[in-house]
């Protein structure tokens, strides 16, 4: 399955209605990280962008961008968090990898960090590494790319959830781009649902 087919499959269960092309400067991102990125992640950024899934998981920006109300989550901070978790859990004795091969691309509301394990020189072969907060194992590798992992997670295809929370309950799955979420907040609406929220925008400039 091509990366575009994987994104289209994901769109079938999670419409990109509130997504947006992130318009990433990929040469700059590659220079900052010293690597190319997987084709499915590039395709995801072009269709959905960075943002949240059901308000319970966030897809991260590869480079920082200024937010309308707050700066959106980005890879560098969560990658540092994942590597610090690796060290705190015992380093190589807990999970025998080079910490530099851990790069975060997402987080969950349960404080799990969704990463790639970048040991393979081909980014399209990077498996997903979950640094779990309340999972059976602190580190677990899944032999899927980012888009397929999300599809399986959102389709409830894992016998044991790889993350600490259940954000799929058989109901509607929504993705909201970070800029749209922030505009909703400024307008006094819930960032995830768009419904009126008396607390939204309370601290807006």
From TrEMBL:
Residues 185-205 are annotated as: Disordered. This is Knr4/Smi1-like domain-containing protein. The lineage of its organism: Bacteria, Bacillati, Actinomycetota, Actinomycetes, Kitasatosporales. Pfam families: SMI1_KNR4 (PF09346). Residues 26-141 form the Knr4/Smi1-like domain. InterPro entries: Knr4/Smi1-like_dom (IPR018958), Knr4/Smi1-like_sf (IPR037883). Coiled coil: none annotated. It comes from the Bacteria.
């Amino acid at each position: 399955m091509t990366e575009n087919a994987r994104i289209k499959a994901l769109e079938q269960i999670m419409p990109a209605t509130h997504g947006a092309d992130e318009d990433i400067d990929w040469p700059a991102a590659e220079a900052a990280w010293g690597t190319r990125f997987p084709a499915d992640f590039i395709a995801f950024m072009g269709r959905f962008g960075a943002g949240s899934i059901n308000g319970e998981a966030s897809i991260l920006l590869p480079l920082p961008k200024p937010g309308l109300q707050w700066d959106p989550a980005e890879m560098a901070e969560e990658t540092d968090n994942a590597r610090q978790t690796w060290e705190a859990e015992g380093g190589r004795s807990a999970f025998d990898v080079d910490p530099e091969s851990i790069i975060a691309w997402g987080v969950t509301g349960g404080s799990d960090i969704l990463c790639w394990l970048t040991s393979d020189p081909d980014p399209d072969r990077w498996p997903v590494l979950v640094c779990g907060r309340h999972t059976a194992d602190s580190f677990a590798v899944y032999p899927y790319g980012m888009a397929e992992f999300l599809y399986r997670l959102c389709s409830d295809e894992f016998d044991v959830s790889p993350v600490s929370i259940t954000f799929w309950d058989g109901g509607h799955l929504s993705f909201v781009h970070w800029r749209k979420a922030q505009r909703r907040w400024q307008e006094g609406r819930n960032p995830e649902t768009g419904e009126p929220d008396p607390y939204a925008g309370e601290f807006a400039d």
